[in-house]
């Protein structure tokens, strides 16, 4: 049928972006990185996310990931940057809070000083967190 031909023709010849789903599984990824000691502080967790494909897509299509970000298209660059930083911080706090509630990590406020800066919150994996990471279990499972 003709409608299907048009659909497939458009599908083949018109590029469409592939969006990230990391934000849906970010809590378990963070747990694995904390267990591996790649992430030792809340700030390192935020920095970690900025190096991912998720962050690239977030900056390119913020409305897909955050409803508040739909306003970004009408704001200036500084406001966009602040709104994205706010979204990343909210997302990170949510993920770390979930890991704390599930007993996978412990947060130690003011425990780490990096490069002479202000004290930062250190994150340490617990036995449950290490078990979840070792056996590829979700943080809710343990």
Automatic annotation (TrEMBL):
GO terms for molecular function: ATP binding; helicase activity; hydrolase activity. InterPro entries: Hel308_SKI2-like, WH-like_DNA-bd_sf, WH_DNA-bd_sf, WH_MER3. Pfam families: WHD_SNRNP200. Keywords: ATP-binding, Helicase, Hydrolase, Nucleotide-binding. Residues 19-108 form the MER3 helicase-like winged helix domain. SUPFAM superfamilies: Winged helix' DNA-binding domain. One of its GO terms (cellular component) is nucleus. This is MER3 helicase-like winged helix domain-containing protein.
